[in-house]
Amino acid sequence: MVMPPKRVALVKDAMTAFPHFIEVHEDSVAARRIMLEYGIRHLPVKDDGKLIGVVTERDLEVAELVGKSQEPARAIPVRELCSRELYVVELHARMDVVLTEMARRKVGSALVVKDGRLAGILTTSDVCRLYGELLRELSPPADEPA
């Protein structure tokens, strides 16, 4: 049986819409609280409404390790922790193009914009979820012959 061709998935099909974000003047303690509260690992950073970076769970872990070696431990400003090398994509970008570029850049997220404003975030977890759904659609259950 030949399956009809499907359209290539778009970023909007897998992204997390309306992501939480943090302002650049906040600190590592606030970032950690947001991540724990919402169960997320990537947090876009804004400065007066403009995207300027992303702080990750790993960034916070490294900062906490460094902080333990200092006396007294201090909250670190997000502006000192966040990566400023953003990968920003449009809402209707093709997933194949975006994923190839994420792999090339070795990044775990892409910030998604619509009309220049933050509309979502695409993370490796989002991609894994979409890929799992696609595999279920393409593969028969184990109890059915292939």
What's the helical proportion of residues?
25-40%
Mean pLDDT: 87
Give the biggest beta sheet. Answer: 4 strands, mixed
Integer count of domains: 1
Low-confidence stretches: none
Q: What structural class do helix, strand and pairing data support?
A: alpha/beta
Give the N-terminus to C-terminus distance in angstroms.
11 Å
> Total helix count?
5
- CATH class membership: Alpha Beta
At the fourth CATH level, what is the homologous superfamily? CBS-domain
The oligomeric status of these chains comes to single chain
Shape: globular
| Radius of gyration of CA atoms, rounded to a whole number | 18 Å
Instruction: Please count the beta strands (DSSP E, at least 2 residues each).
Output: 7
SSE string, helices as H and strands as E = EEHEEHHEHEEH
Q: Give the strand line-up of the largest sheet.
A: 1-7-6-5
- Please state the second-level CATH architecture: Roll
Write the layout of secondary structure elements.
Elements: E1 16-17, E2 22-23, H1 28-38, E3 42-47, E4 50-56, H2 57-68, H3 78-81, E5 88-90, H4 95-105, E6 109-114, E7 117-123, H5 124-138
Parallel strand pairs: 2-3, 5-6
Antiparallel strand pairs: 1-7, 3-4, 6-7
